[in-house]
Amino acid sequence: MTAKPHDTFIASMPKAELHVHLEGSVQPETLLALAKRNSIELPATDVAGLQEWFLFRDFDHFIEIYKKLSTCIRTPEDLELIMHDFMRGQAEQNIRYTELTWTPYTHFENAAIPFADQLEALNSARAHAESEWGVLARYIPDYSRDIRPLENATTVAQWAVEGASDGVVALGLGGPELGNPPRLFEDAYAVALAADLASVPHQGETDDATSIRDAIELLGAVRIGHGIRCLDDESVVRLIRDRNVTLDVCPTSNVCLGVVPSMEQHPLPRLMDAGISVTIASDDPALFSTTLTDEYRAASIWFGLDEQALADLSINAVRTSLLPHEERTELERAFTAEFDSL
């Protein structure tokens, strides 16, 4: 890609990010340090080796790496370190607000870290980021849908409800879609929805458009991670529009994992042309060698989006966030004023 005049605008514009994973934000240097202090053997011992390891063959290879990375997280202090580094990176990009996904059951299973201790560690770093850098974050604990027994998903939903007064705003669902359809997780989402937590599952990344319909109708999804396969079924596109569901789309992730053949063929422009509410996000920035800033640059270069279109995407991320109405309105007002000055 060649630099475009929009680069300065993109670097300085206010941003919000709604689809990014804490575990996938761990930079190679930090991963090596965690592995060393926790006596975990990795397939590589230097940054270059890790970057080569991160050249994903397919989605299953990505999951394998993600799980190995997660085994390097053994203590609440590890989580606090990762969260601190992540929020500093968000501040450097002028990302004012983030809805951060993390997978608490994995850390409970791997290292017996109680959910309350995980949340306390994250909140320590979150409070520092808000006071020092003025950046905000809320949480979406998710469940990896391939973990059995399925009752564990309900446990995570209960944890999410317990954390609702401490920054948790939604229940997520990640991991391999194929063979793990939304209907298996109705009980877990019933717990979350009964407590007024939002439903924000991943869906329609590797599975078909019907799975997106099920995520909306069975799990009550208000936003969907990825969702790009909706374009295969016009009735699903209509459902998304009718229910005002937003798709949090991650172009670089989709290309790296072979979900989409190339950036030129990415369906983001078609999603926008279809009248679907979308945001763009980095997903697992360290693993895909990207940032939210890079995703906006890619949208400018590959899809020809001008500054107004980029601003609209950023403001839409605020508008479809899960902040309380008054906070959301105030943040949208601040973004709009700043874009007017830019």
Rg calculated over all Cα atoms: 19 Å
User: How are the strands ordered across the major sheet?
Assistant: 1-2-3-4-5-6-7-8
Number of strands: 8
Structural class, please? alpha/beta
Shape annotation:
globular
Q: What fraction of the residues are assigned to beta strands by DSSP?
A: 5-15%
Corresponding CATH architecture: Alpha-Beta Barrel
What distance lies between the first and last C-alpha atoms, to the nearest angstrom?
24 Å
Helix-strand blueprint:
Layout: H1 6-12, E1 15-21, H2 28-37, H3 47-53, H4 59-71, H5 76-92, E2 95-102, H6 104-111, H7 115-133, E3 136-144, H8 151-162, E4 170-174, H9 186-194, E5 198-203, H10 209-217, E6 223-226, H11 234-242, E7 246-249, H12 251-256, H13 268-273, E8 277-280, H14 292-303, H15 307-319, H16 325-341
Parallel strand pairs: 1-2, 2-3, 3-4, 4-5, 5-6, 6-7, 7-8
Helix pairs in contact: 1-14, 5-7, 8-9, 15-16
Your description of this structure?
This protein has helices at 6-12, 28-37, 47-53, 59-71, 76-92, 104-111, 115-133, 151-162, 186-194, 209-217, 234-242, 251-256, 268-273, 292-303, 307-319, 325-341; strands at 15-21, 95-102, 136-144, 170-174, 198-203, 223-226, 246-249, 277-280. The protein has a single domain (6-30, 75-341), classed as TIM Barrel (Alpha-Beta Barrel). Strand 3, helix 8 (151-162) and strand 4 form a beta-alpha-beta unit. Helices cover 51% and strands 14% of the residues. The chain starts with 5 loop residues before the first helix and ends with a helix. It is an alpha/beta fold and 342 residues long.
